Amino acid sequence: MKKLASIFFLFLCLSCGVTVNYDYEKNTDFTKYKSYSYFSNMDTGLSELDAKRLFKILDNTMSLKGFTLSEDSDFIINIESSTYQENRSNSSVGVGVGGGGGNVGGGISVGIPLGQANMSRQIKFDFVDAKTNQLFWQAITSETDVSRDYPEEREEKFQQIVTKALDGFPPKK
Fold it and tell me: Who wins on pLDDT, 5 or 76?
């Protein structure tokens, strides 16, 4: 029974995490990119404090991958975030009648959603070639149950998002 509970808990933790979808221009030579910068007029959709947290974590992760932050960069990063409330399932009413062997039966069911709707967030990372101004790589992260917790917990969540997003950069052939 303890094994089943452990497996269920693990599944629950993994299913509530961050998911990432990647896309990139397949003819891109990713070896030519060594330095990056950020779009100057970027509107991240995050609070100023959350944006600072995200940029700090992104800079640290990019540095670990061998990329440098530079004014005269090879590519430019744009970040957009949106937070939305997940749609709840609509309440439904079902009516059924059945019979067999001389007996007749019927039933009615009503579905009523309980609890609060979850807030979800999507963060899009666009990597744009600085010379051609063309998008060459993109990661879109999605997370459910966006925390409204303490700064440390927010920072930990951004670390998860950036780590998962940049796991696909540069793409592995």
Answer: 76
